[in-house]
Amino acid sequence: MSIDRREFLKTLGVAGAGLTGVSALGKSKPEPDADEFYAILHDITLCEGCQECELACAEANNLPEISDDDYPDSDIKRELKPNQYTVINAVETSVGEVYTKQQCMHCAQPACASACLTEAMKKTESGPVTWEEGKCMGCRYCMISCPFDIPKFEYDSNNPKIGKCQMCFDRLQKGEVPACVENCPVGALTFGKRSDILREARNRIFDNPGTYVDHIYGEHEAGGTSWLNLSPVPFEELGFKTNLETKPYPELTKGFLYSVPSVFILWPALLMGLREATRNDDEEGADHE
Amino acid sequence: MSEQTLQDDYAPTQNIWKFFKSELKPRGSVWTVFNMISVPMVLLAAVIIVIRFVYGLAAVSNVTQSVPWGLWKGFNVVTGVAFAGGAYVLTFMVYILGMEKYKPLVRVTVLNGFLAYTFYAFALVLDLGKPWNIINPIIGNSFGTSSILFLVAWHFMLYIVAQMIEFSPAVAEWLGSERARRNLKRLTIGAVVFGITLSTLHQSGLGALFLMAKGKIHPLWYSEFIPTLFFISSIFAGLSVVIFQGSILQRVFSYQLDEHSDERHNIMIRGLSRVCALSMFAYFFLKIIDMVHNHTLGYLMSPMGAWYLLELIGFVLIPMLLFVYGVRIGTPNIIRLASIMTLVGIVLNRMNISVIAYRWDEIPRYIPTWMEFVVTISILFVQIWIFRWVIHRMPVLRTMETMIQTSNIER
Lengths: 289, 411
Fold this sequence. Notes:
The complex is a heterodimer.
Chain A: H1 5-20, E1 38-43, H2 52-60, E2 87-93, E3 96-102, H3 111-115, E4 121-123, E5 129-131, H4 141-145, E6 152-153, E7 162-163, H5 169-173, H6 179-183, E8 189-193, H7 194-207, E9 227-230, H8 251-278
Parallel strand pairs in A: 1-9
Antiparallel strand pairs in A: 1-8, 2-3, 4-5, 6-7
Chain B: H1 3-9, H2 16-24, H3 33-55, H4 71-83, H5 86-96, H6 103-127, H7 136-139, H8 148-174, H9 178-208, H10 226-252, H11 261-293, H12 303-329, H13 332-356, H14 370-393, H15 400-410
Helix pairs in contact in B: 3-14, 4-6, 4-13, 4-14, 5-6, 5-9, 5-10, 6-8, 6-14, 8-9, 9-10, 10-11, 10-13, 11-12, 12-13
């Protein structure tokens, strides 16, 4: 035999995997290290709710301006919109009014990107989760999957976009920091490599006993995110989602995806076997309709 | 009957266009109650669809940022696919297990499945924001292979092809080509095996779509068993459609059936009822295990819990018992009632997972507009139109021989 057994099995495996469309599961390239992504820290104890980040975000992304009567107020909950990628909300807590900032969390292993069937949502090497208009078909499965409910859809457009923070991907390419970070007047936002940012956050908790709760939101949430938050009160009080998984969300579908190739190989063999076994003896050889 | 007489008597090969033209003409009265309701409705839906593509989804639909999948996805796609599950179950029984007695049901069920899938694909396109980009995951310039939706979409497409092959011999007979029929028939078993495999995966895959929505779907409905539950429920959902649809076909197309068909039909639906009852029992049992395993029993005392119990007891357990009872005492009407209740239960379950219990805590709630309902129902209507057109003309419920005999008598 000219083909040896191992070679043959390998070919068979590749052909089978191609057929089932899950060949990418056996990724050969290593997963980018979550700690080496860029990350941003929002220190809620420092934030004054001035909305400079919102304004800078709108300008950097060519979004409509924020109107003057739209400001953080603890009586209302301001929401992200398809054309507003970040919002500041005022929250009344046990230590007085504090300000939270909401935007895409840029998960290390994002649910939206693994949900996307066209790879329009993508986790880039440097950290931002980006959306590519030319690939998106508008199925909104990313919205179903996102544990933070971040992607927003332009329902009132006949050529709708998905709107969400891209961590100023274009600016990062040019070596600049995201617009919100650059324009924060009080230094509530810190940008850097995720490992450095995590260390910085831990230092602040350690150095200022009593100022922060001992929890960096985003360190483990959804398997780790590129946005990290420090808070003076438990995050539950701020309305952050605290019922999240600590493992990455794509893990939830892994078991199912792994079972696909097995079913694809086993079922046809089993079905053909069953068919042969249930045939009547007198039919054998005859042209069975 | 030989090939020659088939062609002479029925399908003229000389002038195929004339033949198509004559076949396009409606048979029987156009002014039926069904047509009086469905035609204006479909026209209205066409207008709504135009508005939707000119002004965007918000002009006709109430879907929100937090509940992005509404009636069209939840009913036409997620529920509809479960309803179309009868085709793979029946082909499994007949072609794989060799249960010849169910053979008369295969063609009509496959036809129904094929039409259902085609129209649900259409419903999906309506709901897409950028439908022209649907070619991206097909032609391969951007394969999102880690996506369950990618898998489901591909299996969906391939299964439509498999069903087309399974049904094609009937088309060949209609066109009077014996050779084509014989060749297409050879493909049947391959299409059946492929089709059952694809169905297993995409029926469960539709459930797996919601695995990442953990925390967004009410804990009573969210489960790591969702794929398995979707698969098992597609068995009794599909068969219930076969039973329910059969009882209507027996009346509407009675002219195509002989005097023994009622009796034969009752024997078949009794057999299918047994399969329904057993798979419903497995489903019910798995649901209980799931509740115990996930410690969700406590939620049963809440309003959502009552809604859950209505679905599980009222529309799974009770129809299951009715199936058993109906088979015992042999009353087709009880079996029919059980099949209708089962179908309601499937609608409840699929709508709960994709729409109602999805972000159940969100205020305001998503409530579909009347326009969404009109489109949803119109899609079913058009499907019924084509279904009716095919059954009147092709050998689906009856054989080609009996068709030719009756057409000779009419002449």
